Each structure stands twice: as C-alpha cells, then as structure tokens.
Amino acid sequence: MGIISLITSHGSAFESLQVHQRSIAKSSRSIIRCLGSQDGEKDEVIVRTIDTEASTFDWDDRIDIQKRWTNSEKGWNVGVEWKETPYGAGLFATQDIDAGTLLRKGRIGLNLIEFQSIEEIDIFCRGSGDCSSSEMDAKLMYVKDYLWGFNPNADERGYDILDSGANKLSLEHEEARFFGMWVPGNGLNHSPNPNTVYRAAVPGGTEVGIDLFALIDISKDDELLDDYRRHGTAPTWLLSFARERGVTLNFAECNDFVVCSDEGKGP
C-alpha cells in the first residue's frame, strides 16, 4: 500500500497526516477526513472518487456505481439509497430529514469536479489515457447526464436573482457560475417542486466546494428532487459541446424536458 497525505480539520484547525492508501476495485482512493466537533460528532470521510478509472466498473449502471463507496465516503450525511424510476435512477431518503439538514458535502478534487471547457471534460473522460473508446463513451454519457450549473449568488431556494429590469444575471453573477459534476452523481431527478437546494461551501465558496441541503422537510421513502431550471442557461462552450457530441444536457435549451412551465421530471 502507498502513503497519501490526509487533510484533517478540527474546528478551525487543519493538520496534515500520513496514512496508508487503500486500493479497491483496482482504483486507489485518496481520502479527506473531516474530524467531528469537540462534542464527539462522528468523523466524516470523503474519498477521492473523481480519479476512478472507467475500467474498474460500468459507468452505464447508474445504481451499481453508487455501491463502489459507502455513502459517508461519498460525502453523504444522511441515509439515502438509489432506485429505478420511470426516469432512470432516482435518489430516495431512508430516514426522515428536517428542512435545512446538510445532505451531502461536495469538495473540489475529491467528489466534485469543475469543468470550464470541452477540453477539461475530454481529459476527465480519457482518465489516465488507457481507456477504450467504449469506456470513454460511457464516461461521456455519464457527464452529459450529471453535469449541472450552479449560481452561488442565487436566492435561498436556489433560483437566480435577476438584475432589475434586465431580466438576466448581472455580469458579475454570470461569471461566478459553476459548471461541474459530482462523482458519483447525486441522482436527483427533475421537478418544478424541488425538496433540495445547493449552496456554496462555507467557508471558501465554490473554490472549496458545494453542499446539498434539504430545502423542506423530507419523509422516509420520499424521492429527493432538483429543479433543473435552477441550473440556468448553458454557456456557449457547453452548447458547442452538446452540439459536437450530439448529446442532451440538463439545461432547458439542451433538452426537451426542462421548460419554464414544466411539471414533469427529467430522466
């Protein structure tokens, strides 16, 4: 086993440790451990899932991929599970969840990756470079299904705050938007009545990560849902990506299931 650096946080203090690297399914797993508070809160461990190679499992199996790590390793703080729905894999609560509860922590470079260009998506899909064309295609399909947009300056429900009279985001807020993907994806299907909301990490903002919260009370067995309209509009480079690769994306102008008056769910 190799040795990796482990970043720990306890309150506001950070320290670097050396720990043994674990290997599962031929994929090394780097770990960030967030120590609990002094009141004895359970430690949280987030695995570096974004480095997992396509050859280690089937990226086309949206539910099986979730089984490669424990929920806590993926950053989940609550009980959830994935089931088949008419729209593909869906995410369901296995416990009652209060509004405002932190559901999942996303940290850049671990379980969350930011894309700022088509080239960066291609680099992710190629992995170490020894992927077969079919494996790269599978990762491409995963990206197109799970890539989303996030506005860190949105309102408390996650919706854009438009410039008065302009009916669009200010240039500052437009430039602050995040485009990326959780690995593995959350599995939130689309609904105009979401029960979850994304918020920028505190402290650090989107340079550190993005967190998923319960927007309202969620009961056990309820499906967790997102409103894809909150992803905003796709930037020019993502529109080019969708056109060049012949794929749909989870933005209203890139599919036929997210529209302003939509009452259905996405895939």
UniProtKB/TrEMBL annotation:
<dbReference type="InterPro" id="IPR046341">
    <property type="entry name" value="SET_dom_sf"/>
</dbReference>
<dbReference type="Pfam" id="PF00856">
    <property type="entry name" value="SET"/>
</dbReference>
<protein>
    <recommendedName>
        <fullName>SET domain-containing protein</fullName>
    </recommendedName>
</protein>
<dbReference type="InterPro" id="IPR001214">
    <property type="entry name" value="SET_dom"/>
</dbReference>
<feature type="domain" description="SET">
    <location>
        <begin position="78"/>
        <end position="229"/>
    </location>
</feature>
